[in-house]
Amino acid sequence: xxxxxxxxxxxxxxxxxxxxxxxxxxxxxxxxxxxxxxxxxxxxxxxxxxxxxxxxxxxxxxxxxxxxxxxxxxxxxxxxxxxxxxxxxxxxxxxxxxxxxxxxxxxxxxxxxxxxxxxxxxxxxxxxxxxxxxxxxxxxxxxxxxxxxxxxxxxxxxxxxxxxxxxxxxxxxxxxxxxxxxxxxxxxxxxxxxxxxxxxxxxxxxxxxxxxxxxxxxxxxxxxxxxxxxxxxxxxxxxxxxxxxxxxxxxxxxxxxxxxxxxxxxxxxxxxxxxxxxxxxxxxxxxxxxxxxxxxxxxxxxxxxxxxxxxxxxxxxxxxxxxxxxxxxxxxxxxxxxxxxxxxxxxxxxxxxxxxxxxxxxxxxxxxxxxxxxxxxxxxxxxxxxxxxxxxxxxxxxxxxxxxxxxxxxxxxxxxxxxxxxxxxxxxxxxxxxxxxxxxxxxxxxxxxxxxxxxxxxxxxxxxxxxxxxxxxxxxxxxxxxxxxxxxxxxxxxxxxxxxxxxxxxxxxxxxxxxxxxxxxxxxxxxxxxxxxxxxxxxxxxxxxxxxxxxxxxxxxxxxxxxxxxxxxxxxxxxxxxxxxxxxxxxxxxxxxxxxxxxxxxxxxxxxxxxxxxxxxxxxxxxxxxxxxxxxxxxxxxxxxxxxxxxxxxxxxxxxxxxxxxxx
Length: 664
Fold this sequence. Notes:
The chain is α+β, with helices and mostly antiparallel strands. Helix content is about 25%, strand content about 35%.
């Protein structure tokens, strides 16, 4: 017979065991997961490391719980790191990227605004190395900025020898900031992106640690590693990440996910409230790639444009460069542009910004999506030290993006934005507080590489491809180095060799260094195998150039002989280029060649016919020529050009008068 006392005891016992069951199913714990073993070989086998090469990688294990109300993460992280260098080390260096948002005096923020919502940084509760207590020691940057703690090291009382493995265990909380960089939330927490969010071991090679503090512009230097990522997330949030989803289950009001990513350079993920996923397949040379668009409010027209641009890019790159490196690609729409989350690349995942007004003539987001898909080849598969040689991925991405857009889309059009939002076809001449005052409404076609040309002409004298990407203090100089000069370098090679020959070089380069780290010398050596000695001397001069160069016609004059002429040519700058020259007469066109190796040359020729004009590089192959206006000279007066310029000038004057007449 049950008494009240017995019933109370039973209720207490039931509550106790129910609580244990709840905790065991709702709290993330290493003991309940596949990588609970401390033995490195056992852990590697459980993540799927079967080959010898895979077993030589660093492996990151994560248990992550996201608390949306507090906007913070609770993370248990394990790292299996092996020293594959011949030199022992008693130090392990880490990048702690979220510490860039501890204060506004870090190298990344450089005194910029940082409100309390955007502050972040690690709070560690446990740091263990091979089960013994460790601690992070801040590494001061080369500029002696004591406020920057984005690099730290653990100092050991013993040395880690070649092929020795250590187990590093970290437990920490991480505040999720309102995004100003790549990491944080938008829309008051309804959209959260996680990139450069976890403690990452730097690269150790040749007896030295290669580390860089979080730079305002220059990006990262990563090694191929593998990830085993477990996440506990409230069920109302959608989730997507780099890598492959291997397991998912729901317990009460939470979803538990497991993602694995093997032999990749980074791990990024996103959660969003009420997000939608649109999936479709792209077929490229008998391979089917599943594409997911992770978005909140894209309409059918925009989705169709995104699908087309994705298909064009994957199929073009598969045919011209090599097989697409992933079976799945995730495209993440970022809701606004207050941060740097949008327009970024990660392995098998890219982000793009959404805008209310984006007609197809703007090629937005088509251009961004194409650029980031190219990065799946040059960044994620051929991996370069972005901190030092950013042009090896950004220059390639710019160059191939221009090629793809030229093939599948009409020429880009010039446009300006009304109130910073609504794109209007035409040319903006003057604005005040985002209100256009003087403008020309017209359809003006733009060369696909016009942005790179503009940057080169403005800042090319200050940058060279041989420079370190991290040395630049302004974004204009950094982007000229990483994007502009790199694209023009590659396009110049194509112009000299021809498209078919150059793409053979690119395809073999990609195949040779697939899933490897590359440096500038690797690409130049690959070129050297396919070029003549003279052709490589041209390419080498472009690579080492530190100047903006100019080729020009100085004069064309008669010699003492009645039918003999002298064409005087000059060069400013340090590049050489094999140039074609044309001399036009009333009857025919005479063609000559100049190797551009000297600072000046004189071409002597004979003709019985009256000379009209002469031009250097008539097909505009040399993109490093800063001034096209002095590439030609006219002997006979021509009125067509002057008339065209005059009419256009008066058209602009008319626009100006109409606008101000309406105001006053």
